[in-house]
Design brief:
3 helices, Pnp Oxidase, Chain A, alpha+beta, 8-stranded mixed β-sheet, single chain
């Protein structure tokens, strides 16, 4: 019994040390495009930007961003996702909200961290319910990604990226 407690204690200590190390070094998602070949990560690393962003159109030249959400088990979950600038505002969208972890995390806690380049932005995501705004964002998405992904009939959940 004492040996079992020592083994379990050693495993717990190693796991805590691993998580502390990962917290400080980050563990960004692997891959530059969502989907196959891309793997989720934990904490995002980079330079935290605290100044307000008035116009997100600079992301028109950025294909993907990294998104860190807060999981129910208190360890961050980060993924690579597409981003859409529309009317100077930033949006993200997914066609698999019911099957992906990050939309479920956002539904529970809308506070997220975005990584654009090497800059980190603490933001809040809000589901777009206005049909005209959603349609405008999806048209901007189709225009931005038309060469990679031709338009398909999918149901998208669109999120507005707002200040925290």
């Amino acid at each position: 019994m004492k040996t079992l407690l020592n083994v379990v204690g050693t495993i717990v200590i190693c796991m805590v040390l691993l998580l502390v190390t990962l917290r400080f070094t980050g563990l960004n998602p692997h891959g530059d495009t969502p989907g196959p070949g891309s793997y989720p990560g934990l904490w995002l690393s980079g330079n935290v930007v605290t100044t307000p962003v008035a116009d997100w159109s600079f992301t028109d030249h950025v294909q993907t961003v990294k998104l860190q959400t807060n999981s129910w088990y208190m360890i961050p979950h980060s993924v690579t996702i597409w981003c859409i600038a529309y009317n100077g505002q930033l949006y993200v969208a997914t066609s698999g909200a019911a099957t992906r972890s990050w939309p479920r995390n956002v539904a529970r806690d809308p506070h997220v961290r975005l990584k654009v380049g090497n800059d980190l932005y603490d933001r809040t995501l809000s589901v777009v319910t206005d049909s005209a705004e959603k349609e405008g964002v999806l048209q901007a998405r189709a225009k931005k990604y038309s060469q990679k992904y031709p338009p398909v009939n999918q149901t998208f959940t669109v999120y507005h990226v707002m200040p925290s």
